[in-house]
Amino acid sequence: MGKFSIGDRAEVLDEAISGIIQKVDGNLVTLITDDGFPMHFASSDLVKIGGDISVSNHEVAKIKKEKEIPKRRKAPIIKPKERSAPKMEVDLHIHQLVKSSKGMSNYDMLNIQLDTAKRQLDFAINKRIQKVVFIHGVGEGVLKEELHYLFNRYDNVKFYDADYQKYGLGATEVYIYQNT
């Protein structure tokens, strides 16, 4: 869009920012905004204002062409903490699984919890979900022991206590090895 000089007044294309050019370093221009903030822009993103402005048809066509090219979106960067975060949580507390546990024996409740755990683990394996956290609570440890017995029957899983800071002692994390 023509050369810029220090002291020229310029406006940013596609934004409501204008100011005075403080520094020109090749294609990078430092603009002091009307609010007094220094901002850096590519010279192709700026247009001179005030004074004589002469823009050739070639320059207009060139800028239109640049604006039509879609900008590549960066893939979201997965932080190490998120990478190890479980993809799936299963709460096995009985009040989460049935409307009312009134009249149920401990045996009945345990079977419902274990059936749910088996069904969710099979679902995770089929959907290729690598990590599942089963929240069983602390209690007397009966459900936890039964879950470990269940998990031991699978060849492609390993299990261990889930993140203590998040779950305390009341959860087990299962890692599922994916067969390619």
List the helices and strands and how they pair.
Elements: E1 9-12, E2 18-25, E3 28-33, E4 38-42, E5 46-48, H1 57-68, H2 80-83, E6 88-91, H3 94-97, H4 106-126, E7 131-135, H5 142-152, E8 157-161, H6 164-167, E9 171-176
Parallel strand pairs: 6-7
Antiparallel strand pairs: 1-2, 1-5, 2-3, 3-4, 7-9, 8-9
Helix pairs in contact: 4-5
Walk me through what this model shows.
- This protein has helices at 57-68, 80-83, 94-97, 106-126, 142-152, 164-167, and strands spanning 9-12, 18-25, 28-33, 38-42, 46-48, 88-91, 131-135, 157-161, 171-176.
- The protein is α+β, with helices and mostly antiparallel strands and 180 residues long.
- The model has no long low-confidence stretch (mean pLDDT 84).
- The protein has a five-stranded antiparallel sheet, with no helix packed on it.
- It starts with 8 loop residues before the first strand and ends with a strand.
- Helices cover 31% and strands 26% of the residues.
- It contains six helices and nine strands, in the order βββββααβααβαβαβ.
Low-confidence region ranges: none
With strands numbered from the N-terminus, the spatial order across the biggest sheet is: 4-3-2-1-5
Order of helices and strands: EEEEEHHEHHEHEHE
Helix content: 25-40%
On the 0-100 scale, what is the average pLDDT?
A: 84
Reported for the largest beta sheet, the result is:
5 strands, antiparallel
* Alpha-carbon distance between the two ends: 54 Å
DSSP summary, beta strand count: 9
* General shape: rod-shaped
Radius of gyration: 31 Å
